[in-house]
Amino acid sequence: MHEVIIGKPLQKKSFRRRVEQADLLIDTGEKRTERGRPAALYSLRPGSGKHTFVRNLEQ
To answer: Are 27 and 42 a contacting pair, CB within 8 Å?
Structure first.
C-alpha cells in the first residue's frame, strides 16, 4: 500500500524496521493461516494515527 501511495518501491527490511521502531503497532497474537508461512496480525496503537518518517525509504 505504501509503495502505491508514494509511487516508488521501498526497501522492505528498512520499512519494517522503521515501523517497529516508531512503536505504531500492537501484535494481536493472531496469525493469518492462508498459504505458506503464517503472517502475524497487528493493529494500530491508539493515538498513533499519524507518523512522519524523518528520512525517505526509497531504494
So the answer is: yes
What the block records as the C-alpha cell of 6 is 508514494
Report residue 10 CA to chain centroid gap.
Answer: 11
Predicted structure pTM score: 0.61
Query: Where on the phi/psi map is residue 12: left (φ > 0), alpha (ψ -120 to 50), or beta?
Result: alpha
Could you state, in chain order, the average pLDDT of each consecutive group of 10 residues for the chain (59 residues)? Answer: 83 87 90 88 85 63
| C-alpha closest to that of 48 among 17, 7, 13, 20 | 20
Residue 32, C-alpha cell as written in the block: 493469518
